[in-house]
Structures
1.
Amino acid sequence: MSPARDLPKAVAALGVVALAFVPAAGMPAFYESFFYLVFFWVSLSTSWALLSGFAGYFSLGHAAFFGVGMYTTAALTTKFEVPFLATIPLGAGLAALLAASIGAVVFRLRRLRGELFALLTLAVTFVIATIILNTPIDGGAGVFMSAVPLPALTSTPTGTIYILGFIMCVITLATAWWVAHARLGMGLFAIHDDEDVAEVKGVPTFRYKIVAFALSGGIAGAVGSIHAMYVGFLTVAGTFELSVPLFVVLMSVLGGARHWFGPAIGATVITALLYAFISGGEAIMGRAIVGLVLIVAILWLPDGVVPALQKWRRRHRAAPAQAVRRAEVVPVMPSAPPAIGQRDILEVRGVTRRFGGLQALAGVDLGVREGEIFGLVGPNGSGKTTLINVISGFYPLTSGTITVDGAEIGHAPAHEIARRGVARTYQIPRPFANMTVLDNVMLCATFGGPVRSRAEIRDESVHWIGFTGLAGKEEAMPAELNLHERKFLELARALAARPKLLLLDEVLSGLNPAEVDNAIRLVRAIRAQGSTIVFVEHLMRAVVELSDRVAVLNEGKLFALGAPREVMRDPRVVGIYLGKAYAA
Amino acid sequence: MGQGMGAWRRRRVLAGIVGAGASLASPAILRAAPSGKPVRVGGTLSLTGFLAQTASIHKIAAEIMVEEINARDGFLGRPAEYVLLDDQSKPDVARSLYEKLITVDKVDLIMGPYATAPILAAMGVAQRYGKLIIQSSMGIPKLQTYAMAFPATPFGPEPDKTYPNVILDAMASLPAPPRSIVVLTSKFPSAQFMAQGMRAQAEKRGVKVPLYLEYESGNRDFGAIAARVKEADADFLWVGSLGLESNQILEALRKLDYKPKNSFHLYPAPGPLALSPDGNLVWSSTFLEPDEPFMSRPGMKKIAELYKERATKANLPYPIIDAQAAGMIASWQILEQGVNGAKSLEDKQIAAWLKKSVVTTVYGPTRFDGLYNHGAPAQLIRQVQDKTWKVVWPREFAAPGVKLLSA
Amino acid sequence: MPSATLLGQAMISGVLAGGMYGLLALGLSLSWGLLRLVNLSHFALAFLAAYLTYELGTTYHVPPWWAAALVVPAMFAIGMVQHWLFDRFKVNELASLLITFSFAIILEVAIQLYWTADYRRFETHYSTLSIKAGPFFIPVLELVLCMVAGVLAWGTWLWLRRTYVGKALRAAAEDADIAAAYGVDHRKLAYLLSGMGAAYAGIAGCFIALIATLAPAQIWAWLGVVFAVVIIGRLGNPLGALLAGMLIGASESLAMAVFSPAWAPVVSFSVLIAILLWDPEWL
C-alpha cells in the first residue's frame, strides 16, 4: 500500500467524520441547510450517473423517481400518518420498482437506446406528473407538510435534515464507488462503449442495466422522500420541473459522468456557484456570471473535472515504478501433432436464419471436433459471418439447434453462450474504446471465464496480453494501437475467457505477410492450449495451412466439407467462387 | 433595477447626517431623522426565475417604503434597512436564505417573500426561530398556520367562501343577471382553491355551472378549451387564471369569433390584460387601485407617484401601482406600526401588539384577530374601462362616477 | 361525448399549435442530428429574436416581416459564431449541453436586464384574423406559421436529400473521416448548418412575438415538449420534426376536448410511449 494511495483515503475519511459532526458543532442553521442542499444534489447527480454516466443510457426522467419519492412521503405522512422515517425506504422502493419496470420493458428493445431512451424517460416523467396532479395524491392543491412530525435525530430540525441528507449522500457515494469497482460497474462501462460486444463477451447486459436503473431510481426516490420534509409544501409544478433532470446532467457532465466521484464534484461546484450571487443587488448579473463560469470551465476541461485531474496526474506521475507483471509464461509449442478428439464440440443441425425477406442461412449442418482447427469459407454473402453471429448469440436463430459441449445454446442469450465457453473476434476490431488494453482483456476474463479472484484475473490477462504480443501496452487506450495490434487485442480478449470454442472472423484481413505468419503461429499455439477453433477466412493460403478440415458455405447451406486441399480443388467449389463456366 | 443596496444605503446615511445637521441648526424642526445602528429587515424575492416579473414590483415598493419609514421615525428612531436576497423562484432556496438571514446575518426582523410556496418555506423557518413574518400574497389563508404570521392583504380567512359571493352580488346587479357560469381554472393551488369555491357558491345561489374545466398551469394551447367554452355558451365566464392565461384564453376565444358576455379573471398580469384588445370590460380581483377612495388614504398619493416614477425608470411596461405593489406597501406599514406600537423589536411583543390592534394601511383599517390572524375580507372587483383598471364593486369602493358596466 | 364540431376545431387548433412545436424543433433537430451538438440555447435564441421583433415593432414601428429580414440574418450570424466556439474547442456532445445551457442563461439574463422580467405583448391586428371554413375557424397567424414551417421543413428535407451540400452534410454526420476522404469539407458545412439552425430559431421567434406574450422565463416553457418532438421526429429529419410536432399538438388538443384538460399530457405522452414501444414502419 503506497502512501500516495492512503493519503486521499485518509483525508476522505476525516472529511466524512467532520461532516457528520457539523450539527453537533452548533453552526448557524444556514450552513446546515446549505450543506444539505449540496448533499442533495450530490446524491441526485451521482445516482443519475449510475445508469446514464456509467452505461451511457441517457435518462431525462430522473425527476420521475425523485417525484415518486417526494409524493410517497407526502401522501403517507399526511393522509395515513405513517411516521416520516418509515416512508423513506418506501419511497425508495417504489421508485426503484418503477425504474425496474420501465427497464424490464424498454431494455429488451435494442432500438430504444440513445435519444429514444431519453425521450421515453422524459415522457414517463410527464405522465407521472400529470397523474399526480389529477388524482388525490396532490390534485392541484399542493401538499402541506408542516404538521408532519420530524423525528429529533439532532437538537434542531435543520440538523436532522442535514444528517438525513448526509447519510443519504454517504450511502450514494458508497454505492457509486462499489458499483464502479465491482463486476457490475465493469459491465456497465462496457455497455457504454459497445453494448452488443459486451453482451457477447459475457456481460449480462439486460440484468445489469435493470440493476443500475433500479439503484439509480431508488436513490433518487429516497432523496425525494427526505426533500419533502425540507421543502414543506409540495406542488407538482415545483417537483417535476425541468431543472432536476437538467441539473443532474449538467453536474455530471461538469464533474465527469463516467467516474463515481465526478458528479459529486460537479454538484458541489454548481450548488456553490448558485449561492455565490444571492444578494439582491447582484442577483441578476450574478446568474450571467455563473453561466460564464460554467462555459469557461467546460471549455477548459471538456471531459469534466475528474478526467482532467486524472490526465494531469498521469502526466506528472513518474514512469510506473511498479511495472505490470510481464508475462512469464511462454506459449507452449508442442512438437507432436495435436490430438483431435472424437466427439463434436460444436454441433450445428438445420440452422436457419431469416432477416425479413432474406434467408441468410438456409439449413446448415456441420460438426466441429474437439481440438480441431476448422476453416469456414465461401463466397461473399454465403452466410459465414451470419453463422458466427448466430453461434455466438449475436442473433437468435430462426430454427434448428446448436449444441456446444453437449449443451443446447440456440436460444440462449449471448452472455450465457459466452459463459459456456464460446468466444469470438470481430473482423473489424471492436475494443471498448474508453478502457485500457488491460481493462479490455480483464473484462473478458471476468465475464467469460470461471469465477476467480481479481488478482488471478489480472495475472491471467497480463499473460494473454503478452501471449498475443502486446506486452508493454497494457495501459494504452485502443485508439493508440494500430490495426495489427487491435486485431491481436481481439484475440487476447477472446482468449482471456478461456474458451472451449473460439470463433475467428477474418482475423487475417488487412495484415501484411509477416503479420499473417505471426498470426498463423498464434492460432496454432492457441489450439495447443486446448481450444477448438473455427475461423472464417478469405486468405486461401492460411486456410490451407491452418485447417484440419474446411467447410464451404454457399447461399446459406453447407456446400462441401473435407480436408483442405481436396475441398479447394473440388471443381464445384471453384465454380461457386469463380462462376460455373470457369469450373467446367 | 440594478441599483445595489449600497447606493441607497449611502443616500440614507447622508440624509441622516443632513437631517441631524438640520435639526441642530434649526430647532424649529421637531422630528429628528432616525439615527444609530440600522434595524435590519431580511427577506427574499424571486428576482430571477419564473416569478421574477412580480418581484421587481415588490422590490420597488419595498424600497419606497423603507425610504418613507426613514423619512419619519424609522423603527424606534433607528433607520430601517432591507437586506434583500434572491430566492431564484425556488422554495428550497428561499428556506435556506431565510435561515441565512436569521442565523448568519442575524437580522432583527424578517419580511415575507412573494408567492405561496416560498412564503410557506419562509414561514417554517420563521416558526422555528420565533420570528414574526408578514406576507402579502398567500392566496390560501388556511395554510397560514403559524401564530406569528400576519397577512398584509385582506383576503379574509375564507376567501373561497366570501369572495365568490362578492362576485355573485356584482353579477346579480347587472341588468341581465347571469344564470349560468363556466368555471375554468389553472391547477395552481391558489387559483384552483378559489375556483372550487366559486363553483360551490354559485350552485348554492342557483347559478348553474354547465362546465368546470381545469388545465395545468404550464398549458400552451388553449384552442380546445376555448372551443369547449364556446360550445357551453354560458352567461358568464370565470377564469382562475394567473399571469398570461387570461390573455391566451380570450385570444383563443376571439379566434373562434366568440366573445364571452362578461368574464372574470382571478390573478392575471394586470398590464397585458388591460391593454389587450380582448380585455375591455373584463373583471378581475383587486384590493386597491390608484383611484378614490384609496388615494385619499394616508401617504397613498405620494407613494403612488414615487412608484410610477421608479417603475418607469426601471423600464417596467406597466408602471401603475396596484394591489401587487400595495401588498408590499401594506406589509411595511404593518411592520412599522407594529414595531413603533409595541415599542419593541422583539417579535413576540410586536405580534402580541398586532393581534390586539387595528393597523391603518393603504387597505384601510386592518385587524388580525380572526382565524389564521386574518381580519375581515376586503377583496374587490375591478374592471377594465378605457384600458385602465377601475374598482367597480362593492359600490362603496368605486371612485365617484365609476360603475360596473355590462359587456 | 363532444360534438363533431368541437372535435374538428380541437384538431385544427392542435395541428396549428403543433406547427409551432415543429418550427422550434426544426433547428434543434438539424444541429443535433447532423452536428451531434445538443443546442439548449436554441430556445433562448428564438426568444431573443422574438424580443428584437417586439422592440423593432413597438419602438420603431417596423412591420414584422421587415423585422424578420433584419433579425433572422442576425441569428444566422450568431449561430455561426456559436459554432466557431464549438469548433475551436472541439466540443463533444455532452459538453455542448452544458455550454449551450449556460449560453441560454446568459441570454436570458441579457433579456431580463434590457426588457425586465415583466410580460410584454406585441399587439398587432394580425392576431385577430381568422378564416371561417364551415363551422370551423382557422386563425390566420397560426396558419401562416404552419405554412412557413411546412415550406421550411420540406425545403430543408429536399435540400438535404437532393443537393450535394445536403448529402455531404448527412455523410459527414455519419462518418466525418470517410466523408472528408471524399472531399467533404465538414467544417465549412458545419458553420452553414449551425447558422441555419439559429436562423430557424429566429423565424420561430418572429412568430412567437406575434402570437405569444413574452417573458424571459418563457424560454424554458417549450423545452420539454420540443425535445420530445425532436426525438420522436428522428434527429436530423426536418419533415419528421414537423409531423411529430403536429402529432403531439393534435393529440394534446383532442385530449383536452374530450377529457379534463389537465389530463392532456398523459394522453399525448402515453401515445408517444406507445409509438416508441411499437415502432411502426411509417414513423
Note: Residues 1-5, 13-29 of chain B have pLDDT under 50 and may be disordered.
2.
Amino acid sequence: MSTSLEPQTPTPATAAASSAKAQPIGDRVFAGLATGAGTLILLVLAGVAAFLLAEGVPALVAPAGDLPGGNGFIAFAWPLLFGTLLAATIALVVATPFAVAVALFISHYAPRRIAQGLGYVMDLLAAIPSLVYGLWGVTVLAPATVPSAQWLADNLGFIPLFAGPASTTGRTMLVAGLVLAVMILPIISAVSREVFLQTPRLHEEAALALGATRWEMIKMAVLPFGRSGIISGAMLGLGRALGETIAVALIISGLGIVTFNIIGNQNSLTIAANIALDFPESSGLAVNALIASGLVLFVVTFLVNAFARYIINRRSEFSGAN
Amino acid sequence: MTTSTTRSGATASTKGAPGGRPPAPRRLPPRAAWIVLGVVLAAALLLGLSTGLNIGLLAVGALVLNVVGLYVWARAVEGRRAATDRLVTAVVTSAFVVAMVPLASLLWTVITLGTNRFDLQFFTYSMLGVVGEGGGAYHAITGTLIVTGLAALISVPIGVLAAVYLVEYGRGRLARAITFLVDVMTGIPSIVAGLFAVALFTLAFGPGTRLGIMGAVALSVLMIPVVVRSVEEMLKIVPNELREASYALGVSKWRTIVRVVLRTSVAGIATGITLAIARVIGETAPLLITLGATTGLNLNPFDGRMASLPVFSYYSYTQPGTPPQPGLDRAWAAALVLMLIVMVLSLVARLISRLFSPKIR
C-alpha cells in the first residue's frame, strides 16, 4: 500500500543531487549521516548473524561429548527445533481461522460504529507483553485444560498427538501452542483486516448489485483479494510464534525430547524457551551451544519472514488495486 | 445485506399476472438470530441448572446449537443461499466471541491478581534483604526505565535518520536492501537480539558479562526497525508541494528536511517512537540473558547486573521462595504494572497522533 507512493512522487532527491558540486557542507554532512544510519542497519543485521556465528562455531566444532547431552550439536538442537516447529504449528493452525474470522467481523460484519473501536482494542492486545500471556497461560489456561486433555487421552488416544497419559498439571505442549495462538491472533488479524479493508469498494458493490448475499460477496470479492494478506499475516504470526520465548518457558519445563504427544507430562521444548531456561545457569561451551541454537532459530525465522515479505511485496506490485 | 427489496406487498397481486413482479422470497422475522440465540441460551441455562454440567461444555454446545438451529430454520424458510449467508454470519460472529474469551480472561486475571500488591510499598521498596512478604519493584522499575531509555536514545536517531535516508535520499539497490532487511528485522526473535548483545559483549569483555547497556543494545536491535518503519510511513505522506516550495525559496536540502519535512511529521514520528517503546518495554527474554537480575538498586548501566520489571516478574513467579504467595503476588503486580505502562504508552501514542497531526486531507 505505502510502497506504491514512492515511485509516483516526483523525486526532489534526484533534482537536488544533480547539482552535487554546489552542495553546501551541511547538505553533505546530513546526507552522510542519513546514509550512514541506513548502512548501519545493514551492518547490525549482518552483525547479528556474524556474532552469533562467531560465538556459535565453538559449539559446532567441539567434540560431541563436551556438549550438553553429550551427543553432539545435532542431537542437542534437533529436539529443540522439532519442539519449536510443533508449538508454532499448533499456534498457527488454531489462530489462523479465528484471526480471519475476527478480521472479517471487524471489517465487514460489525456495526460501523464499534468496528473502529474493536480495531484499536486488537492493536492494544497485540502490544501486551508476552510475559503476561505466559503468566496467564500457566495460571489459568493450564489447569483449565486438564479435564479436556484427560478426555482426549481417553477417547482419541489412538491419534499420536493425544497418546497420553494426560498431564495432571496441564503444563503441556498443547497449552503452550494455545497460548502462542492467543498471542499471534491479534497480529494475523491486524494484517488480514488491513487487506480486507482495501478490497476495492466497486468489486464489493458490483457483487451485491448482482444479487449476491453478503457471504457470496465476501467469497467472490474480499477473500480472493485478501488471500495474500492472510498468508503473509499468518507467516508473520508464525515468525512470532517460532521466536516466542518467555511464554513457552513459563509453561513447559520440558526435557527437550522429540514427541508428538502434546498432552503428556514430558514435552518437547522450543529453542527460544530452552535458551531462556538454561542460559542464566550456563557457562563455557554450554553457552556456545545455546548461541548456536539461537543461530538456527535466527535462520528459520529469517526465512519465514523473508517469505512473508516476498508475498506482501509481490502483491503490492501486481494486485492492480493500487 | 437484504438481497431483495420486493419484500412487502408483492404476494397478493402477482399470482399469474404476466409481467408482474415475481413472488417475494419468504424471509425469517427480523432479529431471527437473536431469537435463536435466546432460545438456545435459555435451554442451556435450564440444562445447566438442572444437571450441573460443566459450564464450558454448555457454552460450546449452546454455540454450536445456535449456529445449526439458525441454519436449519433459515434453510427451511429462506432457501439455501440465504441460509448459507446466515450460517457464515453466525460462524464469524461466534468465532469473534470465542477469540475474545481468552483475551478477556487474560485482562481479568492480570487485574484481579495484580491488584493484591499494587500498593505504595511496591513502588518505593527494592528487594534488598527481603524474604517473604513485603518488598517491592522500585529497583526493577528504575532498571526498566533506564534500559528502555538508553535503547530509545540509541534507536531513535539511527531509526529517524535511516527513515530520512530511505524517503529522501535512497534510490537503487542499497535502499531496496535496507527496506527489505528492515522488514525482516521486525521479525527477529527477541531472544536472538539478546544473544546478539551477549555475543558482542562476550567478544569485547569476556564471558559472563552482564550490564545494563547490553540490554539496551539488545532492545535497540528490536526497536530500530519499528522506528524506521513508522517514521518512513510518516515522511512519505508529507506532501511534495511543501518540499518543492522550500526548494523554490532556495533552502538547502538538509534544512528542508529538518525544518519542513520532519517538522510537518513530528506528531507522527512521536507516535511511532512511543509505539516502538511500548513494544520493547515488555520484552523479557533479551533482558533475562543480558541484564541478569539483582535484588538491589543499580542506577549505573555500565556497571554490573540490573533488575528490570519483566525479569523481576519472571523470577518472582518461577522462584517465589517459601511461602510462595508473596512472591507470586509481586510477580502479578509487576505484570500489571508492565501491562499498564504498555497500554498507557499505546493510548498516549494514539492521542499524540490524533491531537497534533497535520490535517493532510
Note: Confidence is low (pLDDT under 50) at residues 1-20, 318-322 of chain A.
3.
Amino acid sequence: MVMKVKVKFYVDFKKVFGDERAVELTDTATMRDLLVALGDSTQRSQMIFDEAGKVKPSVTLLLRRNGSPKSVDKEQIVLEDNDTVMIFKALFGG
Amino acid sequence: MLDQRDLERYSRQIMLDNLGEKGQEKLKRAKIFIAGCGGLGSPVALYLAAAGMGEIRIVDSDRVETSNLNRQVLHWDGDVGKSKADSAAEKLKKLNGEIRIETIDEVIDESNIDNLVTGFDGIVDAMDNMPTRYLLNRAAIDNNIPLFHGAVQGFEGRALTVIPGQTACLWCLYHGSAPPQEKFPVIGVTPAVIGSIQANEAIKHTVGIGELLANRLLIYDGLDLQFTEIEISRDPYCIQCGKSA
C-alpha cells in the first residue's frame, strides 16, 4: 500500500524544495523515511541531516493530522495517509 | 493617573480609539522584563520606553563589542567596552525620563530567573541562545507571565507570543532543541523588524487590544519580503507547560 503525504516548506527550505510537494511513501513509513526521501540530492540532504546522519537540531517539523498542526520531534513517528508535514528552520539568534 | 505631561507626550497614541487614556494608564502601570539588550532587546526597549511602559527591567551581562554596532542600536561607538546594561540605561533614560528603567548586569540562570521576573507583567525573550530562552519559557509558565519571543538570523526572523496555560509555548514548538551557540550572520534591520513586533505584542497585551501572535508562529523573510504565519498548538505532553510538567 502507498500513502501520500503533503510537505510544505518555508523560507530557505522553500527556496530549495519549492512551496510544497506530495510525497508517496509505503504505509508504514516514518517521519525519518519521509526526510530521507526528501534528501534526494547533496544540497537537500545537507539541509536536513548533519554529517552523522542525524536530523539537524534547527530543522523544525510540524505535523497536521485531523486538526491543528503539532510540532513533533520524533523521527520514528509513523505517518498516515493525507498527513501534512511542515518544515522550517528554527532560529536562535538575538 | 496620567498627568498633563503624559497627556501631551503620548497624545498621538492616546488618539487611538482602542488605546485612549485608559490604555495609556495601563501602559504607565505595567512592568516589563526584557532578557537581553542586543539586536532584539535594543528596539524592544526603545519602543517600550517611548510608548511609556511604566517600568522596564533589562538584564544583560555582556560588554559592548565593535561587531555589535551593526544592529544593537542602543549601543554606539563610544560605548565599546562598557556593560550593555549601563549603555542601555544611559540612552533609555535620555529617551524617556518619566518612566522607571532598571538595568541589571547579570547572567540569567536557573538560580536567579524566578526572582528576576517576579512581579512583572510580561517577559520579552531577546536572548541569543536556546538554553536561556527555555529558562525564560519555564519561568513565564511557572509565574503565569506572558512571554514575547523573537529570534533572528540573516534576513530571517521568528516571533511568537506565549500565554501560559492557554497557548503553545517555546518548548511545545522546539522540544528543547538547542543547536551549538555560535556567531550568526545578521543584517541589523532583521532584529529591528522582529523586535518591533515583540514590542507591539507587549503593548497590545498590556492594553488588551488586537490579536496576539498566540498559537501563530510568525516567519519573516526579509530577503523576499514575505510574512508567513504557521498555526501551532500546545503539546499536551510538553515537559514545560503540559499536564505532566
Note: Chain B touches chain A at residues 36, 38-41, 125-130, 133, 150-153, 156-158, 168, 172-179, 181, 184, 186, 191, 215, 219, 221, 228, 230-233, 235 (CB under 8 Å).
